[in-house]
TrEMBL record:
Keywords: ATP-binding, Membrane, Nucleotide-binding, Transmembrane, Transmembrane helix. Signal peptide: none annotated. InterPro entries: AAA+_ATPase, ABC1_TM_sf, ABC_transporter-like_ATP-bd, ABC_transporter-like_CS, P-loop_NTPase, Type_1_exporter. Its main location: membrane. GO terms for cellular component: plasma membrane. This is ATP-binding cassette subfamily B protein. It comes from the Bacteria. It comes from Kribbella steppae. It is found in: Cell membrane. It is a multi-pass membrane protein. The chain crosses the membrane at residues 33-53, 132-157.
Amino acid sequence: MGLAVLGSVLGMAVTLLTGQVVGAVPGVIDAAPGAMSLGTFSWLLGALLTVFIMQSLTPAIHQVASQILNAALVREIGTDITEPLLRPQRVAHLEDTEVLDMQERAKGKGGFHLAEGLGNLPWLMASRVTLVGSAVIVGVMFSWPVAAMLVAVTLLLEWYGGRLIAREIDVWWGNTEEQRRADYLFNLGMRDAPKELRVFGLHGWLVDRYVREWTAGFRPVWERRRRNLKWSVMTGGLHLAANGFAILLVGRAALNGDLPLTEVATTVPAILSIGVAMNGYGVVQVKRGLSAYRAMKDLPGTIAERHPESAATTRHRVETMPARDVRFENVSFRYPGSDVDVLRNLDLTIRAHEALALVGVNGAGKSTLVKLLGGAYRPTEGRITVDGVDLAELDLTAWQRRIAAIVQDFLRFPLSVTDNVVFGAVERADDEISLAKVARESGIDEVVRGLPAGWDTVLDKTFDGGVDLSGGEWQRIALARALFAVHAGAGVLVLDEPAAALDVRAEAELVERYLELTSGVASLIISHRFSVVRNANRICVLADGRIVEDGTHEELLDQDGMYAGMFRLQAERYVTSPESPESEALDA
Ligand SMILES: Nc1ncnc2c1ncn2[C@@H]1O[C@H](COP(=O)(O)OP(=O)(O)OP(=O)(O)O)[C@@H](O)[C@H]1O
């Protein structure tokens, strides 16, 4: 800011010195008595040249300084707009369009950048200094009314231009949903689904949809811009007329002999400087930046207000929980914005040190139950207790650290094998003994032996020396991550479809070791594979939003209910005669 303001002060000094130089020329040429000597004139010229060079250098220095600051600023903004979304322990805010829109605005897409706004602030200040300074020059040397007229016209037109832009921003704000969709499609094409797009021949569809969404997002902005253009041309013409009128007045005064050459030579550039000082662009950019800044500052408050999280209490020692059990008491749940209950008056007890299996058809709500257990969502009705204490009263961060899980869509970090495993408990990242143990338990020791850089191999082919694992290998990595967390002291182990991608041998190994792996923790296993489920200490069947059957494998078979029906159906398929199409499909 200092450099930008210095630049405009030097610019005015150039104007003043130029006036002095031009005014002195006739006297110096004529060597008129009382006129400036050649020596003094040379000093004056030298001063003009020096100031001019200094003025020319300031933008370059300013640019370097602002580039350095900009990098820091972009990093700071990046943190401020992602951290508030990462901080909450629950996840409902990530599905709230108001929050997502606000983040989008804070990110400042389409040029509404906070960094750009701040980058323009020095130039806006500099143009204000030029405006005031040049107006003073015009006032002192020529006419105060003319100076006032020019300043008034400049500010008025700048204000009007700002209003036009503000309307444009308002239109833009209303269209972030289409822009988000366009963004999603772009990423889909570039990164997320290259194989499916080709297999299903979707590239044409994708491009069309992207163009459609993008255009829909920006069409109202363009319409507003088109309407603004007419007014922009008119304001530009008016501004030109005001400046032209002022210069005409200077010319007339000069011709009438009322204004000496020095004053003329100073006033004309000063008038032009006032014209240039109409920094509509700067105003717009700063305004845009401020809009983004407001959204960024409002983001944490809006999230906290719309998705309040109870303050963590230290009354309960979460580190040893659950010592007795986790209970779902009359729990009902529906997702935000939905009008369907996924869980309805559900009662379930998961005892500490017990391996509990949960089965149910697709969409029964098994994964939803896990999300509630982890505190990602709160029950709409009823409560979940841990050793008798309501989960809502616990320090959610500490509780979530107690849970180790393989979720269905587990993360595949494009990092080393070690990182992928120790992320289960980063605070124990150096615990090589546990690492070796979980490698054996999960069966990834075999996988690691086959990798070019062993544990250090990056699991992403786009990196130098990186490799891609198969679905089953990734699943073992996820299992290792969860087990690492258990070795680090987690008290609840959730395995959501841990065998879905495993081959028969790996699945058999998992089944064989299952009770050993889950001993000492409260574990919840969700699987459609009865080979895995049947080994659990207890099995619960989830249907119609509640637990409809509860018992051991043998007990449930004896009950001859839903579990028995599902089990027999699956078992039958494995023993169908070799000629049947089902059996061939299974073999395949
Ligand atoms: N974020 C969400 N918003 C709204 N509805 C959701 C959301 N996630 C899941 N649902 C719905 O909740 C219901 C239960 O889903 P859930 O994933 O818990 O089932 P599941 O028993 O784990 O199924 P599967 O065996 O197929 O994995 C489904 O009808 C699903 O459409």
